[in-house]
Design brief:
- The protein is built from 4 helices and 13 strands.
- It is an alpha+beta fold.
- Strand 2 and strand 3 form a beta hairpin.
- It has one domain: Fumarylacetoacetase-like, C-terminal domain (Fumarylacetoacetate hydrolase, domain 2, Alpha-Beta Complex), CATH 3.90.850.10.
- The longest helix is centred in the last third of the chain and has 15 residues.
- It is globular.
């Protein structure tokens, strides 16, 4: 299975990630430095997860860039392939901790297919394509998360990819995930949720990154928008013409603990 760098672009600085110098624009236009880690075994096309009895799974629609030519001489015109990735999040595992990997390691899925051929420079010019996740929620309502290739524009993705390849130059890396970009990519990206996590003001504690993170996660858990156990999540990547160039399915089940 491929080794994939998983990127986080949220405000909190986690204790078990590599923090990069490359930044992107935050909710208020302020720069936020990217961070991340390598998931060494990301399945392609299909995955079945086993979660703990208390686990709550949310999913995020993200883009992955295949590392070309071993990552050497990656210029703006270097041909490359982008593909859709489902990043899983055990949301409950983000509470009461500054660690990120327990929530995001081993529950990711890369779409299977040809992907979209493009260049690193084209991603800054508004390339076209979509990665889309669909599943039935707890109330059997259709829930959708999606990210457009145009959502990558202005997020400093070329610099992110180059720095990740430099940081990981001494280890094998197959793909670089660029994180959940776009308001529809993840439930935690929704603007109203992000604003609510910092309220009520003027209590300054509510704008502290990890305190706001706790409030954001608690809101997601309370609202019941996660993926129900046994419910398949479909991952679909389409190109500019609407042709399907990547597919995947992920299902999770709760473990049966012995009394």
């Amino acid at each position: 299975m491929p080794r994939v760098w998983i990127t986080d672009g949220s405000v909190p600085v986690f204790s078990d990630t590599r923090r990069l110098e490359t930044s992107h624009r935050g909710l208020l236009g302020l720069p936020i430095r990217y961070e991340g880690f390598v998931d060494p075994d990301v399945p392609v096309g299909r995955a079945t997860l086993l979660g703990d009895a208390e686990d709550v799974l949310c999913v995020e629609a993200e883009w992955c860039i295949r590392v070309p030519n071993g990552g050497q001489e990656l210029g703006d015109e270097t041909p490359l392939v982008v593909q859709g990735l489902l990043e899983g999040k055990w949301m409950n595992r983000l509470l009461g901790t500054r660690a990120w990997q327990p929530a995001s390691l081993g529950n990711n899925l890369l779409a299977e297919g040809a992907g979209i051929s493009t260049t690193l420079g084209a991603l800054e010019q508004g390339a076209e394509g979509e990665v889309r996740l669909e599943y039935r929620g707890q109330a059997q309502d259709l829930r959708v998360h999606r990210s457009l290739l145009s959502d990558l524009r202005g997020e400093n993705v070329p610099a992110l990819v180059r720095e990740v390849l430099a940081v990981c130059r001494d280890e094998t890396l197959d793909w670089v995930d660029v994180g959940a970009l776009g308001e529809e990519a993840a439930v935690v990206n929704e603007r109203a949720r992000l604003k609510a996590s910092a309220r009520p003001l003027p209590d300054p504690r509510n704008v502290l990154p990890h305190r706001a993170k706790e409030r954001l996660v608690q809101g997601v858990l309370r609202d019941g928008v996660a993926v129900p156990p046994g419910e398949p999540v479909t991952l679909t990547t389409t190109d500019a013409a609407g042709a399907v160039v990547g597919r995947g399915t992920l299902v999770w089940e709760r473990s049966q603990r012995l009394a």
